[in-house]
Write a structure and sequence with these properties.
alpha/beta, 20 helices
């Protein structure tokens, strides 16, 4: 359980204040995520804006913690010699690589704009003036990143916050004064959004992305002043939310059917051409980043063409494709034909599977979800047919019991005998909701069965294993459920495990990193695979909170 830091009043912009801002922003979005999801109407009524903003902020917080050598959000220790520039640039980079959805991508660009100003020398400007310029640059960068800006959205709220910050800065306000002015300006602008955007007015809600931005600015104000914001802009307290949104399907909205997001390594001229290609393919185009690394977001009917455009521009990776149709039908209460329910050991994996269309159940360490939780997930999936991925051998009995109960309710259910989350990812990758149920189950079962799995864990005590005696603190490499390697560190143990797994061949290595594991480990393992196994590809995901230190899959 996270504990929010207790900020002290300060008129200083430094690494400590950025760290506190980040922690408070994660906490605020965590409290608000369900309420923001509930009022998500524009650009697509898919009820995930709050979740996307939260996951983006969590990624930014994790990168900041790693850069400062500190624990994740909720712990107040910081590194005394870290600079403001290092902190804001790490914060913005973490948001960029972990941005989710339209709103998360825009938030990442807002933070980049802040970093562009705060990361440079102040040049004689006081903290208040500097922060005002940073918030102004943030709004300008966000507008430039969106192909076709629309008023009444998160962009409008950002612009209003910037104007209020500028006024406070010109009046020689402190950094805390500027942050509070930005927060108040954003709240006022948010309340006006239903009158600016027809979709919001019809649904009787304010903009969901704007709600999230107000929460982030409230966290900034609290970090600098030591006082929590006077009100929160969700849950109907600070702004009216008369009724929930009324989602409509793709035909009624006239919008594309898929959301495509990926990170892209490419030069700026190639990205300029990419913008033109993607703008012709769909809408809601947002391209953020710079210095050779970009986050690309677009809604299209042809996701393959959107990914291919990225291949032409550079190297796309961490590709996520989400189909909107099933989410819209579920929101209306209509049954879809087929759904996937997956038990996952980590919040990051839950987000990843959710983006692939699965309904997820989070399994915390040492806990096995009961049958009632799985039955509830099957009902939430609201489908005539359900493919259930239990995620581990210890969960299969519970999954079978849940399947029997769901069948009694008239739902056709098949349980894929997955023994690891990476097998579930492999099964989900070949899921075909348009094929027949039996063909889909056979293909998913074959994909799971063709994936060898491994997990790295830390021994809690001395014990006998199939690989010998381990001591407390040793790193254990388990392959297909049995301890195969005992090592002293993650790097050496992971490489030894990969060497054994790839000894019998493979085409794709999947790495799932735990919350405390640095990206550098994945980079070293990717280089190791490329050096010794030229024909093998590697993909890396973040498991998030509650996941194991490292999961490995070899297909």
């Amino acid at each position: 359980m996270q504990h929010e830091p207790q900020p002290q009043p300060a008129d200083e912009l430094d690494a400590e204040s950025v760290r506190t801002w980040s922690s408070l922003a994660v906490a605020a979005l965590g409290r608000a995520r369900e309420d923001i999801d509930a009022i998500n109407v524009y650009p697509v009524a898919d009820a995930d804006t709050g979740t996307n903003l939260y996951l983006t902020a969590e990624s930014a917080d994790r990168a900041l913690a790693e850069a400062l050598g500190t624990p994740p959000a909720g712990v107040s220790e910081t590194t005394a010699d870290a600079t403001l520039s290092e902190a804001v640039r790490a914060y913005a980079h973490g948001a960029l690589i972990g941005a989710r959805g339209n709103s998360g991508t825009i938030l990442a660009q807002l933070l980049r704009g802040v970093a562009d100003v705060l990361g440079d020398e102040p040049g004689g400007r006081g903290p208040g003036r500097l922060l005002a310029e940073a918030l102004t640059r943030a709004a300008e960068e966000a507008y430039r990143a969106v192909a076709h800006p629309v008023e009444g959205t998160m962009l409008t709220v950002a612009a209003a916050a910037a104007r209020a910050a500028e006024a406070a800065g010109e009046a020689a306000g402190t950094a805390a004064d500027v942050a509070l002015a930005a927060y108040d300006g954003a709240r006022a602008a948010l309340a006006d959004t239903p009158g600016q955007l027809a979709e919001l007015g019809r649904a009787g809600v304010v903009d969901a992305g704007g709600c999230g931005l107000v929460a982030v600015l409230g966290a900034l104000s609290q970090a600098l002043s030591g006082r929590p914001p006077a009100a929160e802009a969700v849950r109907g307290r600070a702004v009216p939310v008369p009724r929930p949104p009324q989602p409509c399907d793709a035909e009624e909205q006239g919008g594309p059917a898929y959301e495509v997001i990926y990170l892209l390594e490419a030069a700026e001229p190639a990205v300029a051409e990419l913008r033109g290609r993607l703008d012709g393919l769909g809408d809601s185009l947002v391209v953020v980043g710079g210095d050779g690394l970009w986050n690309v977001h677009v809604h299209v009917d042809d996701p393959g063409a959107a990914v291919e455009a990225g291949v032409v521009a550079g190297r796309p990776y961490r590709i996520r494709i989400t189909h909107f149709g099933d989410e819209r039908r579920r929101a209306r209460g209509e049954r879809v034909q087929r759904a996937v329910v997956a038990v996952v050991p980590g919040e990051g994996l839950a987000g990843l599977c959710g983006e692939a269309g699965a309904t997820t159940v989070l399994a915390r360490p040492g806990e096995v979800p009961d049958a009632a939780a799985l039955v509830d997930a099957i009902r939430r999936a609201h489908a005539r047919e359900v493919v259930l991925l239990p995620g581990g051998a210890d969960q299969r009995a519970v999954a079978s019991a849940a399947a029997e109960q769901a069948r009694a309710d008239g739902v056709r259910v098949a349980v894929i005998p997955t023994r690891s989350a990476v097998q579930g990812l492999a099964a989900l990758a070949v899921h075909d909701p348009e094929g027949t149920f039996d063909e889909d189950v056979v293909a998913m079962t074959a994909a799971a069965g063709a994936t060898r799995y491994a997990e790295l864990a830390v021994a809690e005590r001395q014990s006998f294993t199939s690989a010998g005696i381990c001591q407390a603190g040793d790193v254990l490499g388990l392959i297909d459920g049995d301890v195969a390697v005992i090592g002293s560190g993650l790097d050496e143990t992971a490489q030894a495990v990969l060497e054994r797994m790839l000894g019998s061949g493979g085409e794709l290595v999947t790495l799932v990193l735990g919350p405390e594991v640095p990206d550098a480990l994945a980079e070293r393992l990717e280089a190791y695979v490329q050096h010794g196994h030229l024909a093998v590809d590697t993909v890396t995901y973040r498991g998030g909170r509650y996941s194991a230190p490292l999961l490995i899959g070899v297909e």
